[in-house]
Each structure stands twice: as structure tokens, then as C-alpha cells.
Amino acid sequence: VPSVAQVPVAEGKSLQQTVEILTRKLELLGAEKQGTFCVDCETYHTAASTISSQGQTGKLMYVMHNSEYPLSCFALFENGPCLIADANFDILMVKLKGFFQNAKANKIESRGTRYQYCDFLVKVGTVTMGPSARGISVEVEYCPCVIANDCWNLLMEFMQSFMGNHTPGIPSVFGTKHDSIYSPADTMVQYMELFNKIRKQQQVPVAGIR
Predict the structure, then answer these.
(1) Pick from 56, 62, 103, 96: which is nearest to 185 by CA?
(2) Contact at 8 Å (CB) between 137 and 194?
(3) What are the start-end ranges of the E strands in the chain?
(4) How far is CA 70 from the centre of its chain?
(5) Gap between the Cα atoms of 77 and 70, Å rounded
(6) Are the CB atoms for 115 and 23 separated by under 8 Å?
């Protein structure tokens, strides 16, 4: 069961320095590096021709990939279902351009280092849109458990050990899950919400990114 959250840039520090502070705290706890990760998201909007012919309002669809699931592609509708397809789904989207058009300037991704600490997997990533870094994402997963309610307190306690006051509240996706089994699609919904929040912030690109 993972929790995905945004961590603000520390006062007086650059975004890169804040990432380093977080990863240093994890290493001091005894977490070990386990390679890298990447989650990306492309936005598609309903093609203008479809809207005018059917009189519908435009909908957004997010096509996402996660390096944890290299053979899958996730398509999420706003407030709607999440479709899990195989990696060739991107090719299909090109063929559907009469219905969905890629908002090219909107591609956003989080990329960084994976850490393993006992039963926890932690991913600290820099969120970028185009050439500029926009924020920091932290995903913390408690690997042995698949029921969100059974391990939320444990997750929160662990996150407090290195995130301090920036420990997130319970993710909204958990609210609908309660005692049902958590799935990879739920993680992608959390990333979609995080990316949309960062897009809306539209902050000035942070200095000090290498």
C-alpha cells in the first residue's frame, strides 16, 4: 500500500537541496538505494470536432506510465475509471487523435531514487514539466500489506520519521477503499492528483536545478 505526497521546498534551500536533505535522512535511518524510478503523465483532451458534433463538454484523459510496472500503461479519466492496458496503448492513442488530442506542453513526470528500508519502499522524485522542476514527490509503500486501513497508522509513523511536519494526511483514494484490496491503479490516481496540484501551482521555476 503506497502513499504519494508532495513535499514543499525547505525554507532558504533549493529544490535539489531539499531532495538531498530528505534522502540523507533516509540513509541515516538505514535505507538502501535500490535503483531509480520514473512516473510520467501525458494529458489528452477531447478533440474539438468530437465536442461540437456530440454537444458534449470536453473531458481530460491522462495516459501514465510507472517504471514499477514496465509492461503496463494506465489511462485515467478525470473523476472516472482507470484503464490498465499493455505498453502498446500509446500507439493506439496516436490512432485515436480524431477523438483525443495530446496537450503536448502538459507532459509532467517525477523521477528520482528508490530506497528500501525493511518492509518499506520509498521513492523521492523531482517533478518536472518541460525543462523546469516544479516540485518534490515522495511515495512511501508498505510492501507486505494490501489493505489500506490495516497499515495506514504504520505508514504514517514511518513517514514522520523523515518527513516531520510534512507527513501527509490519509490519501483521498483510501477513502473509497476501506477494507478492499489496494491496486496499482490507486497509486496512479494518487500521482495524477499530485501532478494536477503541482500544475495548478504554476510556481516560478526553482533555481538551483542541475
Answers:
(1) 62
(2) yes
(3) 2-7, 32-46, 60-66, 72-77, 82-86, 100-102, 108-117, 120-129, 132-142
(4) 15
(5) 21
(6) yes
Q: How many CB atoms lie within 10 A of CB 81?
A: 8
Beta carbons of 171 and 4 less than 8 angstroms apart: yes
Rounded to 5 degrees, φ, ψ at 38 are -150, 135
Residues 162-201 have pLDDT tens digits of: 999 999 988 888 877 667 889 999 999 999 999 999 988 8
> Is the pLDDT at 34 greater than 60, yes or no?
yes
State the pLDDT at residue 105: 76
pTM of the model: 0.88
Kindly report, residue by residue over 10-26, the tens digit of the pLDDT: 889 999 999 999 999 99
- d(CA 126, CA 188) in angstroms, rounded, equals 17
Q: Does domain 2-202 have CATH number 1.10.10?
A: no
* Chain-centre distance for alpha carbon 119: 21
What mean pLDDT, rounded, does the chain reach? 87
pLDDT of residue 32: 96
Residues with Cβ within 8 Å of 136's Cβ and at least 6 positions away in sequence, in order, are: 6, 7, 8, 9, 15, 18, 19, 22, 124, 125, 126, 127
Is a pLDDT exceeding 60 seen at residue 208?
A: no
CA distance 83 to 105: 23
